[in-house]
Amino acid sequence: MWSCALTNPSNSTAVGKELAGDAVRVSGLWTDLKMYDPLDSPTYRHKMSDWIPVFLMPNLRVAHEIVSEEMAIVPCTDERLKPYESSHPQFKQFVRKFTDPFGASVSPGILLLRTDAPDIFKSIEAVSSFRDLLALSVIPLQRARGIVHEGSHYIQYSDYFDFYPWVYHEGHKHLVCNTPAQVSLHEVRVFRGQTSPILSAVDFDHMDTDNPLLTALLQRWRIRYGTKRPQWSDRALFRSLNMAAAASKMPAGVDLTTFSLGRNIGLWVSAFEILTHTGQDKVRLWDVYDRLGAAPWRHKKMKARRFKPTSSKTKRNLGCWIYGEIYRVRNDFCTAILWTRRA
Questions:
Q1: Does position 5 have pLDDT exceeding 60, yes or no?
Q2: Does any domain span residue 240?
Q3: Both 183 and 303 in a single domain?
Q4: Same domain, yes or no: 127 and 257
Q5: Could you tell me where the beta strands, DSSP code E, fall in 96-165?
Q6: Which of 85, 200, 226, 269 has its CA 20 to 30 A from that of 304?
Q7: Chain centroid offset of residue 279 CA
Q8: At a CB cut-off of 8 Å and minimum separation 6, what does 259 contact?
Q9: Residue-number span of the structural domain to which 134 is assigned
Q10: 239, part of any domain
Q11: Side-chain half-sphere exposure of 332, counting CA atoms within 13 A
Q12: What is the pLDDT of residues 124-135, one digit of tens each?
């Protein structure tokens, strides 16, 4: 069993040291591509496949592919994987070793990258942003459906889109894990993967997605990462989406408290402020109101200025009022007013 705690490789065997050394090299390239450097991989050099797997997403049973020219999220049975699996049968074994906590087999979704994609699309930031835009094209719609139809079985948390931390390294045919907590190698043979114990793996298809929003965000993603000097608005958009994805995570598991909910509310306020910020001055509450009020709302009720949100002297639309309530509760939580009132 090769499990190397790479912070102390001197404890490894000779073979373990060799693997550990290579994993350290991989770790050094982590910001270029978290799995390994595709430009130095046999797959890239020999053009054995147009696509390579980057991350698994075991909490999603993907039935509907999400594809751009450079990246895709697909089911584990997708035809794009066939050439890679033929060359790397251990990767196929890896994918098939996932279950839920009770032993039921699970088919994880897989994020793929085109081997000939420009280098900037191989950064962990671009990969994460692709995941974030998909999550935020799903979660607001599903939360709205959950409210309207009084259901909780929808994809309402971004935890469903989490990347599995262990990835297949084709150089040594081992699994690699590189997180802030550990850098390790292990054998595929003994691997037993599981979905998150606080979630039930769910089916994901095109009916779960706000498709107009997804299309618009994919276009902005290609502009943001396909441009050498992206505009401030494009950079701000994906920083904001990343914050919103963090705010969309499950606040806690069985230890859910008001503290957990307040923390997530604070992240939502940050997401709106990041999106509104112009890079010049500080963002004020009414700057966010102005941004929400200027949005091209299609429904008359959403346009109507019938509400007086927090700290506003004039009436504004429903979106402004909702944000004002989020802002007010965030402030109350951070300044302990909620706890003072309860006491």
A1: no
A2: no
A3: no
A4: no
A5: 98-99, 109-114
A6: 269
A7: 25
A8: none
A9: 9-226
A10: no
A11: 17
A12: 999 999 999 999
